[in-house]
Hints:
By secondary structure, the chain is mainly beta. Helices cover about 10% and strands about 35% of the residues. The protein has 4 helices and 13 strands. The strands form 2 sheets. Strands 4-3-7-1-2-6-5 form a 7-stranded antiparallel sheet. A 6-stranded antiparallel barrel has the order 8-9-12-11-10-13. The protein is globular, with a radius of gyration of 19 Å. The two termini are about 35 Å apart.
Amino acid sequence: MFTGLIETTGTLLAITPTAGATRITIASPTLTARLNTGDSIAVNGVCLTALSIEPNAFPPRFSADLAAETIARTTLTHLRPDAIVNLELPTPAGSPLGGHVVQGHVDGTATLVSLAPITPNQPDTDWRLRIQLPDTLTRYVVPQGSITIEGISLTVASIEGAEVEVAIIPHTYAATSLHTLTPGTPVNIEVDVLSKYAERRHSPEKFDLTEQYLIANGY
């Protein structure tokens, strides 16, 4: 499990098709030495398995294989060499949950509409980020609820139709990949998993409505 609090950023070195999968290679001087083969790591919000870890390379790097589902559902193969990516290691059990529950299971992609400073020409200004969600995800998003954008745990400020706005503090803008994004860029989205469980719990049509089910659930 992750929390959406980005530990550091890395730099994309290559995306290489192989015989069985597509391999992504990322430079990360601060996290590579902490990785072991098979460890999970979130890259722009996508939970991947670390492989080919090279802490003594220049720069230190690791790789991960992208399954067909990952390629279809995320933005990773749209990235180009030298792109900045957000990195987070899993949260150990018992650690404080600083953001919210993030699985690293991307639900889909949204389009960045705008990213504008609240106070232009000020170095420490807050920012407003607006994205256009696919219609299939809007029902899981509510004002003041949680949403993960590019692996970052953020709070929804407002939602109008399929357009969602979040507030970005100066630290988040500077310490993540957000400052590299431009309007029209696709971004990875993971909605709050609790909202999906709530939908399933309160959608009886998705269950076999036996007498036992109705009695057990108070219908």
